[in-house]
């Protein structure tokens, strides 16, 4: 059950950082780092940081990777 909660938290962080990158004009996030911490009540916090970037030929990049979009 804890693993499911962590995975859900990670996915939410990914969505949040993607949305923020789009807000500032980016179409990619590079240098992504996840931070995990636990407080005195065993509550776990997940946070993410990265740098929004704009890649002009992003379609070509994904095409070279077999058409798979980034996670």
What is the terminal separation in angstroms?
A: 23 Å
What pattern of helices and strands is seen along the backbone? HEEH
Spatial strand sequence of the major β-sheet: 1-2
Oligomeric category: single chain
Structural class: alpha+beta
By DSSP (H or I, 4+ residues per run), the number of helices equals 2
The description of the largest β-sheet is: 2 strands, antiparallel
Shape: elongated
How would you characterize the overall build of this protein?
Strand 1 and strand 2 (about 45-55) form a beta hairpin. The chain is of the alpha+beta class. Strands 1-2 form a two-stranded antiparallel ribbon. Helix content is about 40%, strand content about 30%. The mean pLDDT is about 90.
Helices and strands, with pairings:
Elements: H1 2-23, E1 28-38, E2 44-53, H2 58-64
Antiparallel strand pairs: 1-2
Q: Would you summarize the structure shown here?
A:
The chain is α+β, with helices and mostly antiparallel strands and 71 residues long.
Question: Keywords for this structure?
Answer:
71 residues; alpha+beta; two-stranded antiparallel sheet; 41% helix
